[in-house]
UniProtKB/TrEMBL annotation, chain A:
The keyword Transmembrane helix applies. InterPro entries: Cyt_c_oxase-like_su1_dom, Cyt_c_oxase-like_su1_sf, Cyt_C_Oxase_1. Keywords: Copper, Electron transport, Heme, Iron, Membrane, Metal-binding, Respiratory chain, Transmembrane, Transmembrane helix, Transport. Residues 36-555 form the Cytochrome oxidase subunit I profile domain. This is Cbb3-type cytochrome c oxidase subunit I. The chain crosses the membrane at residues 15-37, 58-78, 98-125, 137-158, 185-206, 226-251, 283-301, 313-332, 344-364, 376-396, 416-436, 448-471, 491-515, 586-604. Belongs to the heme-copper respiratory oxidase family. Coiled coil: none annotated. PANTHER family: CYTOCHROME BO(3) UBIQUINOL OXIDASE SUBUNIT 1 (PTHR10422:SF35), CYTOCHROME C OXIDASE SUBUNIT 1 (PTHR10422). Signal peptide: none annotated.
Length: 655, 201
């Protein structure tokens, strides 16, 4: 082991030192606050051990928002560093660490947890189920993701942050060129979070295939549920490839293997192949649910059925197939020759067809619709042109011969931010505003929402539009500085100003959550927006633990809309029986902790101890095997009381 | 606690909703495992001639030992089938005996595999020798780790069978383990064919 012990705490630089102090102060503050208000029991019993999918979902989203702030601060630091030529705010090494952390955190610990959270909240409600298939496993998925996130986030203070980019290409990422232990965090934390993703994939696949309400055939499922199902399928195909890539990378770094080393027969480009075999599908894993969200929002606020439902479903399926056949377009410059590059160019361009179908379907849904400009719809409307820019520049990048010009420039960075922010983040904001009242019983403030929307949109375009031009002018990505003679300075500065405006937008969003929690009018209507179409709007607001008092019998696509049209009642009180619920469990928290400890030992290269510590999570599984818990029942009387609460103001039958 | 099964006209493992969902979930997990091993095979396929300064496959493979390993594991898959037959007949005792026999074969396989690794180390082939060594030992090691996991798992299930008898839940648990065990056998057949026989051709 060749660890320098003075590297354990990295606080020599002032930024690091103050971050460290800040973290300690806020942790003490949090612990003191919880103790003073006697909230530990509440936190543990109501949240951390809860197997209720809705609570798991909210925990996922909370994790995602915290990570959004962390990744956002990284972005601000990078943009500030490049705002003027020859800036010395960050050193080259520090800049490397910051952009690596930004990419890794935003993908693994922001986008994915938030998407998983929305799935947890919405999918059971949309298919008329009371829970997911495996509630305890579901909670375990959250804990594994959370422990991976914590493990990755302590890196920058304890041992050094990974600094080889979120793609962590070999040979740069190998021991030869990146000694020390910092990069180990990447392979191990991401490996652990991958287990969490697999759990989500299996759980939701079984939930959707087995637990749909009677009458809901596959082609009566709401779009968000459809996209979740296909997303799970891609995860099951793509993630194991990455598991092996990360395992091989870890073996190279910690156990001296030769998968990706230059010497002794290894192939460094093998990593790039395996990585993108997973990572290209990965961007679809986060964008497909976003498509689902937009489909729901556009239909609801246009007061029309989603145009071309079947073509929408098939477009998603086709995209999922193509997503696995395009990975080489990330490294056309590897030099595999014109034949291979042409094939991958064609498959890449082909994706534009199903994606185009989706865009046109959203537009046709709005055509002649009565559009309501509520907050979610604003985000959906902004999504369409923004994502279109991302898609069109993607087609430009997909052309192999032209790509040699764009490769590794800021043009590429701008492109994927237009798809991932303009696509995923916009859809996630739409989802927040859309479904928030269903779970919390109040809407987010409209005025603050408008500020959030406009600031974010202006800031976003100001940040990333200049980067297209910078890229075309030859500004390479991941450069920590540049000289004034390049002429890049004005656009870089513009981009930095844009980032500040985004930050202001996100701050207003957080303020909006706090303000609305304190001030907004409480609502109990089931159909919060008045134009709900799918089953989640049929349950009481806020959603009770059991979701559906009576499992509905589904007759149509958009069952709730159908019931409002035909005057069919939402709940028949006479059918309400005692409802079975899963018990809370401490085991997922234990296994999450066990993975954290084990992962930490691997990072620090205590080889034998680390391998032995793998027994810790398996011990948790063994204990679980012996727990035969039958759950508990909510009595019918209690259910009826909850269901009656909104009777006064609720239209039980359609007008 | 749930009751023991009295109706044996339906397969025991499919008698509860939870059991059915668990089995479907596990099949999906097996699908992921197939991709996982496929990736390992792909790596081995690329690296099998990249031996650097180290020994090549034919120089270190001992086909007699590998044959014995194969026979041990294939037989264990056969006896594993009897575990399920016993379950469906409602005979706990015979189910546990067959689990025991299966595990003996499984342990025999593992002992042989550890010997094989020691032999390779003596012949100068470790995970650090070459890309060939890394990919071979990672493929075999991943399979071996899976077998070890299966052995421990089966012991835990045998204890539960003694404690609780054959209930819809214990039956589906044992059934899931048997899917896993057969799957490892299938993976081994591919390893035997492509790694050892392919290496010696």
């Amino acid at each position: 082991m060749d660890i320098k012990w003075d590297q354990i705490l990295i606080i020599e630089e002032p930024i690091m030192f103050w971050t460290f102090i800040g973290l300690i102060v806020s942790t003490i503050g949090l612990v003191a606050g919880l103790t003073y208000f006697k909230k530990w029991g509440w936190l543990w019993n109501e949240w951390l051990t809860s197997t209720d999918a809705k609570k798991v979902g909210i925990m996922y989203i909370t994790l995602g928002i915290v990570m959004l702030v962390r990744g956002g601060i990284d972005a601000l630091m990078m943009k500030y560093q490049t705002s003027v030529p020859e800036n010395t705010f960050l050193s080259a090494q520090h800049f490397n660490e910051v952009f690596s952390a930004h990419g890794t955190i935003m993908i693994f610990f922001m986008a994915m947890p938030v998407i998983f959270g929305i799935m947890n909240l919405i999918v059971p409600l949309q298919i008329g189920a009371r829970d997911v298939a495996f509630p305890k496993l579901n909670l375990l998925g959250f804990w594994i993701t959370a422990s991976a996130a914590i493990l990755y986030n302590i890196a920058f203070l304890v041992g050094g942050s990974p600094d080889a980019g979120w793609t962590s290409y070999f040979p740069l990422a190998g021991k030869e060129f990146t000694p020390g232990i910092g990069n180990n965090y990447y392979y191990i934390a991401i490996q652990i979070s991958g287990f969490g993703s697999m759990i989500v994939a299996i759980n939701f696949m079984v939930t959707i295939l087995k637990m749909r309400a009677p009458g809901m055939g596959l082609f009566k499922m709401p779009m968000f549920t459809w996209t979740t199902l296909i997303t799970c399928l891609i995860m099951i195909i793509a993630f194991p490839i990455f598991t092996i890539a990360l395992l091989a990378g870890m073996l190279d770094r910690i156990f001296g293997a030769h998968f990706f080393t230059v010497a002794d027969g290894g192939l460094d480009m093998m990593w790039a192949n395996l990585f993108w075999l997973w990572a290209h599908p990965e961007v679809y894993i986060v964008i497909l649910p976003a498509f689902g969200i937009i489909s729901e929002v556009v239909a609801t606020f246009s007061k029309k059925r989603l145009y071309g439902y079947h073509s929408m479903v098939w477009a998603v399926i086709v995209i999922s197939v193509f997503s696995l056949l395009v990975w080489v377009h990330h490294f056309y410059t590897m030099g595999v020759g014109p034949t291979v590059n042409s094939i991958f160019s064609i498959t890449t361009l082909a994706i534009a067809v199903p994606t185009g179908i989706k865009l046109f379907n959203w537009l046709f849904t709005m055509r002649k619709g009565r559009i309501v400009f509520e907050q979610p719809m604003l985000w959906a409307l902004a999504f369409i042109p923004t994502f279109l820019v991302g898609g069109v520049t993607g087609v430009m990048l997909g052309m192999a011969s032209a790509d040699f010009q764009y490769h590794n420039t800021l043009f590429l960075v701008a492109h994927f931010h237009y798809t991932l922010v303009g696509g995923v983040v916009y859809a996630v904001f739409a989802a927040f505003y859309y479904w928030w009242p269903k779970f919390f019983g109040f809407k987010l403030n409209h005025k603050l929402g408008n500020w959030h929307f406009w600031l974010f949109n202006i800031g976003f375009n100001l940040t990333f539009l200049p980067m297209f031009f910078l890229g075309l002018d030859g500004a390479a990505r991941r450069m920590y500085t540049y000289s004034a003679e390049t002429g890049f300075a004005p656009l870089y500065m513009l981009s930095f100003i844009g980032t500040l405006i985004i930050a202001a937008g996100v701050t207003i969003f957080v303020i909006n959550i706090v303000y609305s929690t304190l001030k907004e009018k409480r609502i109990t209507e089931r159909d919060v927006w008045g134009t709900g179409r799918t089953l989640e709007w049929m349950v009481p607001t806020p959603v009770p633990a059991y979701n559906f008092a009576v499992i509905p019998k589904v007759e149509a696509i958009d069952e709730f809309w159908h019931r409002k049209q035909t005057g069919k009642e939402f709940v028949n009180e006479k059918e309400i029986k005692d409802i079975h619920m899963p018990s809370h469990s401490w085991l997922p928290a234990y296994i999450g902790l066990a993975f954290f400890i084990s992962g930490f030992l691997f990072v620090w290269e205590f080889q034998a101890l680390a391998i032995a510590s793998l027994a810790l999570p398996f011990l948790g599984m063994a204990i679980n095997s012996f727990q035969y818990d039958d759950g508990f029942y909510i009595p019918a009387k209690e259910v009826i009381e909850t269901e009656r609460k909104d009777r006064g103001e609720q239209q039980w039958k359609a007008k | 606690m749930e009751s023991k099964i009295t109706n044996y006209s339906v397969p025991t493992e499919y008698q509860s909703e939870l059991g059915k969902m668990n089995i479907l979930g596990f099949w999906i997990f097996i699908a992921a495992e197939i991709i996982l091993f496929a990736t390992l095979f792909a790596l081995y396929g690329v690296y099998h001639n990249r031996t650097a300064e180290g020994p090549t496959g034919p120089e270190v493979f001992v086909i007699r030992d590998v044959m014995i390993q194969t026979i041990l594991l294939l037989t264990s898959s056969f006896t594993c089938g009897y575990v399920i037959t016993s379950l469906r007949k409602g005979n706990v005792k015979s189910a546990n005996i067959w689990i025991g026999i299966t595990l003996l074969f499984g342990l025999g396989f593992l002992v042989m595999e550890i010997n094989e690794f020691i032999h390779y180390a003596h012949a100068g082939l470790t995970i650090q020798t070459s890309a060939f060594g890394s990919s071979l030992l990672t493929l075999l090691g991943t399979h071996g780790a899976h077998v070890t996991f299966g052995v421990v798992w089966a012991i835990l299930l045998a204890i539960q069978l003694v404690q609780r008898g054959i209930t819809p839940i214990t039956a589906s648990k044992v059934h899931i383990w048997s899917i896993y065990w057969h799957f490892l056998d299938v993976v081994w057949i591919f390893i035997f064919t492509f790694v050892y026989l392919g290496g010696l051709m």
